[in-house]
Amino acid sequence: MEPSTREPLVRKSSSSYRTFPGSTCKRLDKEYLRSLHNKRLYLAVFAAVLGNFSFGFALVYPSPVIPALEAHPSPALRLDQHTASWFGSVFTLGAAAGGLSTMVLNDRLGRKLSIMFSALPSALGYVLMAGAQGIGMLLLGRVLTGYAGGITSASIPVYISEVSHPGVRGTLGACPQIMAVLGSLVLYALGLVLDWRWLAVAGEVPVLVMIVLLCFMPNSPRFLVSQGKEDEALRSLCWLRGKDTDYAREYEQIKDSVRKQSRRVSCAEIKDPFIYKPILIAVGMRFLQQLSGVTCVLVYLQPIFKKTSVILKPEYDAALVGLVRLFSVAIAAVSMDKAGRKILLFVSAGVMLVSNLTMGLYIHFVPAPQNGTIANKTLVSSANLPAEPTNYITLIPLLAAMFFIMGYAMGWGPITWLLMSEILPLKARGVASGLCVVVSWLTAFTLTQLFLHVVDVFGLEVPFLFFAVICAGNVLFTGCCVPETKGRSLEQIEAFFRTGRRSFMR
Fold it and tell me: CA angle, 377 as apex, 458 and 367 as ends, to 5°?
């Protein structure tokens, strides 16, 4: 591109200021994006998101396992309410520790090696659960698989955002959520035919495939440039984009962006709005995402269905919800680069709000004999109750759960991860993504640990009404704080936070 036709990203003075390049540069960008070969990019993303598949599989592992272990003949493996609560929630504590580790691993090892490192605790965790002789081994296995999930939660979205280009980043950014949903659905399906030990054995398969494929994938060009490995970064970008494309121009943009942020973020720089605003937005979104109750619903899905005595068997209900979740996140992946991020977040929060409110009001007002709650008390003990419904009105909690998961999967599930990787400044991306994961999973741990106790004391409707209030807050947060990043390069997004120009929103 000739200097005479290059238009500066940030103009110093103009009444018609635009944060992003003008029509000429936009036309050239579109021509460049159309010329790219994406097959290798898709392969690299697929290899990485197998870690999310394993994460989704491990996250909902307690859903079919808790009812089985509550009735286990061996006292050493039998779960009561207290141990079931820990079995469901300790995964998130491990995930928080994994996110904390990623604050160092992402910048030291790089995105790809961090993802590969997660295979070690994941494989060991599944081995412990498959061969468990007591509750201690089960809990340790849950912690290790959670630790691996925390690493992949922070590393994979960053890796995908840095190897992708604006033309497909929205779609590929939804892939971690799609694969996590697919992993959960496979767990629900296998739970219909396998016992809990063989479920843990099955969890080893995606971990092993991931580690083999990633050995042949390139590291992030942006990370390589930040480490001074410019030749390797150029080869990486060439492999991802294709030899016969104008990848050299994109490479120069990456180098320029990294050069401006060559130093790691210091304590003094945290006060800079360019640094703290995107971090606060990303952390706030992860915090509100978990407060909406999604982890509690996924982990305790079968016990919740047993308690409300929906019209099908709980294990079939859980598989059906998983299928709806997969369909919804696929819609989000297709729509994200067309409709935009914010509109999907608004729709998502609205659907979750109505669903949680419906579930809470149903449990509160429908008489106990009809919703099968036995005075609306202990959730875990309801595993021994008959699941046969007395009325078709018991379809309401199933539909409410389906729409809640649908709403989450269309927006606040995939887009929260995508925006985290898009808006965080490069110099703080490794540390800040780890911080987001820590906040997210500590929140999830607190909720999943308290969920059964709150249900036992106050009834099942109280958590769902609380989640409805949080979803209303999600709508306000989206409108006030979240920027639209559709079609913007990472360098353009950083320019917006650096300048604060509202033209970004146009």
Answer: 95
